[in-house]
Design goal:
Order of helices and strands: EHHEEEHEHEE
CATH class of the domain at 3-110: Alpha Beta
Structural class: alpha+beta
Distance between the termini: 39 Å
Radius of gyration: 16 Å
Strand order of the largest sheet: 1-2-3-4-5-7-6
Number of helices: 4
Number of strands: 7
CATH topology of the domain at 3-110: Aminopeptidase
Shape: globular
Strand content: 25-35%
Length: 175
């Protein structure tokens, strides 16, 4: 049995098994604490019956609430390798989308490595589209592009937020 519950500060000492995956971005403790304090409703963990962290999601709401750019953002969603294919990422994403709906966001967006085909395909199955390509988004060796993927929420009745851009952008051009 899996429990989806709010991410707590104590979980920062228990989620190393999840962050061992090479495609998972690992941040400094201050980064996680900022999310937990500013956007706690966007931070959840999936926990096993024996108390192990199976996966987590952290996100936020950003943009101007009065404008069509007001949106939920998935900063990180990941599931430990031994707990994949159980639908945990889908459940965590659904919960974040529901939080964004309650906050009256127009859409949810996320960035994913272009090379991470498994994740890109999962997001497509969840209703996300590639809105734009962001060149050299991930620094490292070699630099890698990201897809900015989006899913319209009910406030975006015409799905304007999902109309793809025709040309790639640079990281500094991302709002």
């Amino acid at each position: 049995m899996t429990t989806i519950r709010p991410f707590t500060c104590d979980d920062l000492f228990k989620f190393a098994n999840v962050n061992l995956d090479p495609l998972t971005e690992t941040y400094g403790i201050q980064f996680y604490l900022q999310y937990l304090s500013r956007w706690p409703e966007y931070c959840q963990v999936a926990e096993s019956r024996d108390g192990r962290i199976m996966g987590y999601i952290i996100g936020k709401a950003e943009g101007s609430e009065e404008r069509e750019q007001w949106h939920g953002h998935v900063t990180a969603v990941t599931v430990a390798p031994e707990f994949r294919k159980l639908g945990l990422a889908r459940q965590l994403m659904t919960n974040l989308e529901e939080t964004s709906e309650r906050k009256k966001c127009f859409f949810v967006d996320l960035f994913v490595r272009v090379s991470n085909e498994v994740a890109v395909n999962m997001y497509k199955r969840l209703g996300y589209v590639v809105y734009r390509r962001v060149l050299d988004y991930y620094s490292g060796d070699p630099d890698e592009d990201a897809f900015d993927m989006r899913k319209a929420l009910s406030r975006d009745k015409d799905k304007k937020s999902m109309i793809p851009l025709k040309h790639p952008v640079r990281p500094e051009d991302v709002e």
